[in-house]
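Worked problem 6 (solution included).
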Amino acid sequence: MLWNTSVIDGYAIAASDGQLGTVCDFLFDDASWLVRWLVVDTGNWLSGRKVLLPVSVLGHLDKPGHRFSVRLTMQQVKDSPDIDTEQPVSRQIETDIFDYYGWTPYWGGGYWTGGYGYGGGAMSALPSPGSIRRAEDVLAAQRSADDPHLRSIEAVTGYHIHASDGEIGHVEDFLVEDEDWSIRYLVVDTKNWWFGKKVLISPRSVREINWMDNLISLKVDRQTVKDSPAFDASTTVDHAYQKHFHSYNHNVRPGDQL
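Solution. The predicted structure is:
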């Protein structure tokens, strides 16, 4: 199932003995396009402190109540390493968090976001062959790299999108696969180019992200984007929709997105 990150943003996070706070952001790896961390705002409980939780700790999803449970106590979270979530999250910071909780880092074992040796969460399942292939493609680079390439979804929302022949719009949202927390599509608003149309862009169509200029460059041209099926929030992005989408984006194979 695909989720809009804007929908999950604001969900409550409940520990085994009380409420920790609410989801306020997501950190994704710009090499694998996998969501690695939830940023949780603890509100008045810890005087506005924000903490990082890996997606694998998510337990039961109470969809009507708009909240996740996690297999942690409030004291565990309170005693966790204090970090500045407004600054880039380094590999050392990630290591400190994993060491504190006794978890295996995603770059040290398992090929998927649920593979911390902790058990899958509410939005995790056994990895599919496709998700394993996607993770294997980037695992070797991640093992040797000091920079984990973590980026804030909140920050990237609003970035300008440039096709190979000019600007086409801006990032409005992200669609995340609940099987492995991979970002399957960017929701792009093209209203500044042609009136009122929103489209989906696969990460495989992304050529480069320029963090200094707040710009995402694509491998495809404007016409390819224009010919893509229109998207709206009420659309169910099922297999039939994705097959239709990929018929206009032949460089991306169905089921093989990053």
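Discussion: Residues 110-127, 131-135, 137-146, 250-258 have pLDDT under 50 and may be disordered.
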